[in-house]
Amino acid sequence: MRRFVIGQAKNLIDQTRRRPPQPHHHNNLRLLSLLRPPASDTTPVSSPRLFSSSSSDMSGSDSSTSSLPVTLDSINPKVLKCEYAVRGEIVSIAQRLQDDLKTNKDAYPFDEIIYCNIGNPQSLGQQPITFFREVLALCSHTALLDESATHGLFSSDSIDRAWKILDQIPGKATGAYSHSQGIKGLRDAIAAGIEARDGFPADPNDIFMTDGASPGVHMMMQLLISSEKDGILCPIPQYPLYSASIALHGGSLVPYYLDEASGWGLEISELKKQLEDAKSKGITVRALAVINPGNPTGQVLSEENQRDIVDFCKKEGLVLLADEVYQENVYVPDKKFHSFKKVARSMGYGEKDISLVSFQSISKGYYGECGKRGGYMEVTGFTSDVREQIYKVASVNLCSNISGQILASLVMSPPKPGDDSYDSYIAEKEGILSSLATRAKTLEEALNKLEGVTCNRAEGAMYLFPCINLPQKAIAAAEAAKTAPDAFYCKRLLNATGIVVVPGSGFRQVPGTWHFRCTILPQEDKIPAIVNRLTEFHKSFMNEFRD
Amino acid sequence: MRRFVIGQAKNLIDQTRRRPPQPHHHNNLRLLSLLRPPASDTTPVSSPRLFSSSSSDMSGSDSSTSSLPVTLDSINPKVLKCEYAVRGEIVSIAQRLQDDLKTNKDAYPFDEIIYCNIGNPQSLGQQPITFFREVLALCSHTALLDESATHGLFSSDSIDRAWKILDQIPGKATGAYSHSQGIKGLRDAIAAGIEARDGFPADPNDIFMTDGASPGVHMMMQLLISSEKDGILCPIPQYPLYSASIALHGGSLVPYYLDEASGWGLEISELKKQLEDAKSKGITVRALAVINPGNPTGQVLSEENQRDIVDFCKKEGLVLLADEVYQENVYVPDKKFHSFKKVARSMGYGEKDISLVSFQSISKGYYGECGKRGGYMEVTGFTSDVREQIYKVASVNLCSNISGQILASLVMSPPKPGDDSYDSYIAEKEGILSSLATRAKTLEEALNKLEGVTCNRAEGAMYLFPCINLPQKAIAAAEAAKTAPDAFYCKRLLNATGIVVVPGSGFRQVPGTWHFRCTILPQEDKIPAIVNRLTEFHKSFMNEFRD
């Protein structure tokens, strides 16, 4: 087989480069990890230096880089303030361990790192939905549609669908920038999917397609936040996209606490209290962010609760930012997902009554197409001049990626009964969702069996968020190591088991309580081993620090 | 053939919806366009209402929407300040015309809208490079790699390359979030491509993959700008991404004027003058943005000029933001693209000497994969702690889309001699680039033949930016219509010919001069008709307004 071009280019360069080859980041990291003890909770890691070894020219001493113009003191302080624990310190440690495992297998009591820190199903072995990928491949290389052999390789409805999608793109050009809100025909499909879901009309001109839900959230924060006097009500615990985005845009996160004792209940009295508190500090609250199903908390709101939330927003003049990316992830028979738009419309509230933005993503659900970066926001109840401003900001980035746009349309209009793919599609979808429900239940039960741990059920989404009642000695040890007690626990867990979870402090929590977020995404055959390793670790941890 | 599911869903909803169907945006627009005269320069369009008819609930009167919480007065003023002419008013008018053309063909002296406003090659018929799309399709639907029929449909090197790429992705999961900077193996390929291009080492850990170049530019602006006291030196005329991004991040655009008389020359004396001027206003200039080859101006910088720019940045402590997205688009034998990193390294400046960010995109070059949204920035000469901050901001958005990442790696490591695809790849690439050169030349010559028009040659990039010496009567008519004189000209051109170009005022220009930007992207067989229509229009315009 031909030699891979990268190797060829590298050789060429090695022969011609004017300076000696630079040591690689990877090698340096391994060297560093050999020079210091394996990452442990006693290693000061509060300011990880991810890049300290990436460039050999930069030896890291301040004097050697003093001529460079950009310093931490001169950059935007909003960037400094921003935090994102889901890919924070614990993941950096895990990546170092993973690198070292390759050559140093015997040094660790585990043979792989299991990433339960992030909702990234396909990284843990979940297979994509075949129909979606067939359509994507056909739209990526449209010459396939002219080949007769294609009919033997693809389902007939994927071929039909690819044609339909291409017909909706001017010139069938999947390599062209689209309309700034996304391809009109795909927005038509999404609007039809929303209508089918909700039983209320949806307008394709209300859809803004985005590279995942995150850019949509940023866009709304950018619109709504002028200064730290603008507040956004956010659930605590929250998905740290919200705190990060608010920090980057210089606003104030106004927290409202979910009630862990009632299964992470969202109480209107708490919203009122926090709103008043913010007002008394001179903060104008612009919006209420609600994550339903909850992240990291996994609860599914009742329709009655949602009606109260809608009324609260209407009364208080708040934009309702509805993070509904887990709308397909509901695992319990007594709960059902209702979109906030459906709830608002069923209360008789229309475009003139409430400002509502619903975020959807192709990264979650049963599809889990995180890497494709697709999603949309449905923007309703804004005046035309404000909508023009949203359109303008979308235009500056030209458009979201077309593969993501295509997948977003497919997710909202999947195969229907009678279609060639329908049976296999349903089997794949139900297989994934029922397995996720099983895994959620198994992990929840295992967590609840641990000493000092209580864990609400994951009614939906992809996470468990157990509360750990840590012994005083463990808290003292964490303080001595200058780390939060739950981060201390999570690092110990990682070092003992290779399991990566995110400390509750990364999501915020009631002060004095400690949690971690663990995804339910490892494949079913891995769950028993994970439960065993977690259980053994926890016993040993509690014994070590028992008061 | 089966009925398309969107149609089915729409029918279902039409039968069950609780309110009467809402009129569609599209219908409303057509109605509006019938109620008013065809968009012309005498229609006040300084504040286009793109969405005024999108939702029937919002009839547009202020009183009917007064209960909505968000108003132009309450949103972020930075958003209000941001402008992006490339998709601005002229495009809105063009879209209205295009809609009306469908049913009202006889009302116009042309039968199609030709979008020369934006560098979007595939929207105007440019075909994607076959090898790139083959690899993309195989990575989109990996099951194809197990089918023997695939070998009849794909080149052997595309199959090899797809395997190589999949081997570099943990679990071969193209649907998973990647490392926040992009898949390591793809960054290796990009770094090798940079090394092959420049003859100097490149580090994959310096590569941050992005959804096109724009998000990279935003990321750097976000890092460097804390307030309006932070300035960014930008060329005038400039690609309005820069002014838009600086406005959104609340900084100050510090202009430096390119010298039209010397082929849009970049003079160091002008940089110094503007830097001093900014300092005297209390502005700290953080960075110098250079677009090479130039957009909208098409010049290619000489290596000597680049050396002076590098020295200027080093001496003044400025980050050099090098927009090098047109690096493959050079059309004249006497000019050659040199990356700023190569220039800096060849001067002996390393990581410790100069802070340099190079932006690259898959949207331009001969590939023109705008819709795939891929690109990268190569970040060199930053301290490790500042790089951590860039990494953190990248992490908040998780990663750029994997299809775009794959394409970015392919663009930087295309087929090599001996590969199955090599001959066809070279034929496609050279066909596109030589045709672009022909089109640039033809259009430039045609423009220079027009009365009062002078046009520098397009040495590179995808645009011509002619200067139009407008008669005083035309300027007076524009003033009466409350529009900039070049916008007046461009709207007249659109209404007379269907050709969409962007007024120079959208890019900024020396006050009192007037220009427009026209892409060189219409297919060759359309160029003669475009030249004819443009020439006829210009004659008639000049005759109408002759002083």
From TrEMBL, chains A, B:
Residues 172-527 form the Aminotransferase class I/classII large domain. Its cofactor is pyridoxal 5'-phosphate. Keywords: Aminotransferase, Pyridoxal phosphate, Transferase. Homodimer. Pathway: Photosynthesis; C4 acid pathway. Belongs to the class-I pyridoxal-phosphate-dependent aminotransferase family. Alanine aminotransferase subfamily. Residues 37-68 are annotated as: Disordered. InterPro entries: ALAT1/2-like (IPR045088), Aminotransferase_I/II_large (IPR004839), PyrdxlP-dep_Trfase (IPR015424), PyrdxlP-dep_Trfase_major (IPR015421), PyrdxlP-dep_Trfase_small (IPR015422). SUPFAM superfamilies: PLP-dependent transferases. This is Aminotransferase class I/classII large domain-containing protein.
